[in-house]
Write a structure and sequence with these properties.
Length: 163
């Protein structure tokens, strides 16, 4: 009798332990998923906001851009995006390493590439500014903003459906 009760007690404790571990793992998975959802939504908001602002007031937006790219030295406003993108890339790398998700590299890889490209453009300002000045003065520059809106919508979809 004592042996049966000890066995039942052992099964109960084991079941509690398994439930606790399962709850911990489920919570860890939700936390990992949250990291990537937030990162993707930040990127999506940035894309959609930039595209929407540029499309709603293109004259003012692109006149400001022309002044920035006409400058021989990078203006302060131009230095902010590379810093923000690099910080997001570092957060993505941290999340990929410590909160791994199966599709983590789909976010971390491109974001790291964007960060490297942004830093490269600041470091090579003299050649980059001439290329961008040609782009912002092109009559069809609005197409870039439509692409950003579509990319932002795709990122929102990715955040909601995958993560």
């Amino acid at each position: 009798m004592f042996e049966a009760s000890a066995h039942a007690s052992y099964r109960t404790e084991t079941a509690r332990y398994v439930q606790a571990v399962d709850g911990f793992l489920r919570e860890a998975e939700e936390t990992a998923s949250m990291w990537f959802r937030v990162l993707i939504l930040v990127i999506a908001v940035a894309f959609i906001a930039k595209g929407a602002i540029a499309l709603t007031m293109p004259g003012r937006f692109y006149a400001d851009r022309q002044r920035q790219y006409a400058s021989a030295t990078p203006p302060g406003k131009v230095l902010i995006p590379p810093v923000v993108i690099s910080a997001l890339a570092l957060v993505a790398c941290y999340a990929t390493i410590f909160h791994y998700q199966p599709a983590a590299w789909a976010v971390t890889g491109p974001l790291t590439a964007f960060a490297c490209l942004a830093l490269h453009q600041v470091l090579r300002w003299e050649t980059h500014r001439h290329k961008m000045l040609r782009l912002v003065t092109h009559p069809h520059v609005g197409r870039v903003d439509y692409v950003l809106l579509v990319a932002g919508a795709l990122f929102v979809t990715l955040a909601l459906l995958v993560y």
